[in-house]
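hey so u asked for the seq, here:
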Amino acid sequence: MRMLLAALATVIPVLAHAQGDPAVVGAARPSTYAGTADRIGQMAKARKTKTPPADDMPKGPKAYVGSWVIGKDGEGADTCTVKFNAAGGIGGFQLVAPKACKGVIARWDELYAWRVGADDDIVLADAIRRAVLVFHKLDADGWTTEGADWDRLLLQRAGRTGTGR
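ran it, C-alpha cells below
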C-alpha cells in the first residue's frame, strides 16, 4: 500500500502539470551553466538541417548505365543495341531491348532487367529475377557469355563498337 501511495505521489503532480501546460512536459529546462544555451541552440539547428538525398543507385551499377551492343562472336555477326537504364525494377534495373534484338538474342522475349553480379558480371534477367544471360568480364571493354564460339554473345558499350541494329 505504501508503494502505491509513493507512486501516486510522484505521478499526480506530473499529471497536474501536464493538464496546465502540456507543451512543457518532456521539454528541456534552461541550464544555469554558462554557454549551455548556445550549444543547445546549435544542436537544434544541426538537427533541423536537411541532408542531401542519397543516390538511389550504388556507384557500381551507375557506371554501366547507357547503351550497349550485343552480338554473336564473329566477324560480321548481327548485333543489336540495348539500353541499361538507372530506374529500378524487379530483378535489378530497367533494361530496354528493342525488337531488332530478337534475331540476335535467342531468349530476347524473356529479357526484363539488368544487374551487376559477382566479379563484375553483367546479368540480364527475366521478370522473376532468373538470370537469362550472364556476361563475364573479358577485358577492360568487353564481356562475354560462356559457350562454344558460335553460341557465345559479346557485350560492349555502344560507343566502342561499330554500328548495331
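Residues 14-19, 21-28, 43-54 have pLDDT under 50 and may be disordered. Residues 2-20 form the longest helix (19 residues).
lmk if thats what u needed
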